[in-house]
């Protein structure tokens, strides 16, 4: 009885352990088995060294899947083709994964994307030499599909030369073109350029330019000396110091709130003056008229004093004096 219980416990333990391990594996990566996938293939003429099974596949930098197979076209499609007619291609197959809608979108729009320029090329993943497959929209006329005679087993996406290959090809063409350069003609052209440059330099009015430059430097020195003299004037320094002191006082006045109180007081005073004037408008008008009459009287008195100073102070104008020997 005890032995049966031990076997039961052992079996239960093993069952639970297997279930836990399966659950962990499912959480870590088993869910990918239930995700929709799509396998595509492409062909390369150039080497794909650095590309391995499991290398990522990206569309404009977005992870999209991974490489699942790398083979030669001979072992895949050309076993019965004579050696002289075989295509020396490298077949790369990749599995695209994602949610159901994304995979269906690729399946539905793949032909249209290829016509628009969808191409596959290898790119370096870093300085280690590892490569990955990059899907991108390129010029379809500049990157036409490779020619082949078989029917692809999976949806086919044309390839394009890798960016590294393009750089190497451009460098190779540049080096090849260097060998076609006529060095002697280039030297003659360079000599002509130097002669023309020397002639133009000799035609320059060096003396006139030197004299004008000297005059300009002299005027500049005089202007600088004048500015230094002005700045050295004690009055300028005193003015700057006074301005700084006034600014500091105004800042302190503003910080203390006294300036705001002054403005408020002035506004209140103006309001009160407006009220007083409005209430005594008639009296002010009469007072102004009296002041005008007084001013007119003072003006008349001033003119009288100018004409008859003594009479203005003592009485009327003096009587005329009769001079003897003259008729009145």
Q: How would you explain this protein's 3D organization?
A:
With about 325 residues, the protein is an alpha+beta fold. It has a domain at about 35-165. The protein has ten helices and six strands. A six-stranded mixed beta sheet has the order 1-4-3-2-6-5. The longest helix has 27 residues, at about 1-30. It starts with a helix and ends in a 14-residue tail after the last helix.
Structural class label: alpha+beta
Number of DSSP helical runs: 10
**Tally of extended strands?**
6
Fraction of helical residues: 55-70%
Can I get a quick summary?
This protein is an alpha+beta fold. The chain is 58% helix and 14% strand.
Explain the layout of strands and helices.
Elements lengths: L1 H27 L8 E8 L11 E4 L2 E11 H4 L13 E8 L2 H17 L1 E7 L6 E7 L25 H16 L4 H21 L2 H27 L1 H23 L1 H22 L1 H27 L1 H6 L14
Give structural attributes.
elongated; 328 residues; single chain
